[in-house]
């Protein structure tokens, strides 16, 4: 490995696992656009890209003479799709055995974490200044995790990641609200507390509102990959009322013992 994108490096840093990388690996900037000249300078045999992220720059990479291989895990609807991409990468690098070990590890974790239940859950991916919010509908990865954690997504009658009005949240009346942190905890809490009609929602009345740190907890839930199996247990503990109202990286690391599967 000669290079790794900044966000992958950041995740390893959260886990104190940067030592798993080669000592001379280069951290490649990908935001707001990929550093193509920097990639070329590394002379990679192949560049692994996520089509959902690199999309518009695919032709630029090709024109620069880079050999690319694209995954599409960001659009995965379940763990089966994620595992399929892992096995495909195993074939690409002639690491079939190791890829299968990662998939086996994931399935063992899923089986140990998953549970059945029908607790109604609303996930607030982002809250806009006017209190409209982005959420996760059916047919996406976050919805699958909520179900495996023993929850029932109150917005499963929508698809993709729709923007909804506060009235939709009030009407859904979820038993649990899980929100992604907006800049910091205080501001996120303020936006939830000032949402029109929030005081009539069961989750608010029963003090079952949880805010996830924008660091490791959000990575686990929002990024389909091997470590996302821990999101099942994280969400399950919120549904069961066993998580703090601010779910921090430190709490997740110590409670879930998040470790990177290396084979």
From TrEMBL:
PROSITE patterns named in the record: FE_B12_PBP
Cleaved signal peptide residues: none
Top-level taxon in the UniProt lineage: Archaea
Domain Fe/B12 periplasmic-binding positions: 1-243
Pfam families named among the record's database cross-references: Peripla_BP_2 (PF01497)
InterPro entries, sorted: ABC_Transporter_SBP, ABC_transptr_periplasmic_BD
PANTHER family: MOLYBDATE-BINDING PROTEIN MOLA, VITAMIN B12-BINDING PROTEIN
Name of the featured protein: ABC transporter substrate-binding protein
């Amino acid at each position: 490995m000669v290079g790794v994108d900044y966000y992958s490096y950041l995740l390893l840093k959260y886990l104190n696992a940067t030592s798993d990388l080669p000592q001379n690996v280069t951290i490649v900037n990908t935001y707001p656009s990929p550093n193509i000249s920097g990639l070329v300078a590394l002379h990679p045999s192949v560049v692994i890209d996520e089509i959902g992220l690199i999309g518009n720059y695919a032709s630029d990479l090709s024109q620069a003479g880079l050999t690319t291989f694209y995954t599409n895990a960001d659009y995965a609807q379940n763990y089966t799709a994620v595992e399929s991409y892992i096995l495909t990468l195993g074939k690409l690098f002639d690491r079939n055995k190791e890829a299968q070990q990662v998939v086996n590890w994931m399935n063992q974790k899923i089986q140990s974490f998953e549970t059945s239940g029908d607790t109604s859950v609303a996930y607030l991916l982002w809250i806009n200044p006017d209190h409209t919010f982005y959420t996760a509908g059916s047919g996406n990865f976050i919805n699958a995790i909520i179900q495996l954690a023993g929850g029932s997504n109150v917005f499963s009658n929508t698809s993709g990641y729709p923007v909804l009005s506060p009235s939709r949240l009030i009407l859904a009346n979820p038993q649990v609200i899980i929100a992604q942190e907006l800049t910091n905890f205080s501001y996120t809490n303020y936006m939830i507390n000032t949402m029109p009609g929030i005081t009539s929602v069961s989750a608010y009345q029963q003090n079952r509102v949880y805010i996830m740190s924008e660091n490791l907890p959000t990575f686990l839930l929002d990024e389909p990959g091997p470590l996302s199996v821990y999101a099942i247990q994280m969400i399950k503990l919120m549904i069961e009322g066993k998580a703090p109202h601010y779910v921090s990286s430190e709490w997740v690391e110590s409670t879930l013992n998040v470790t990177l599967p290396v084979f």
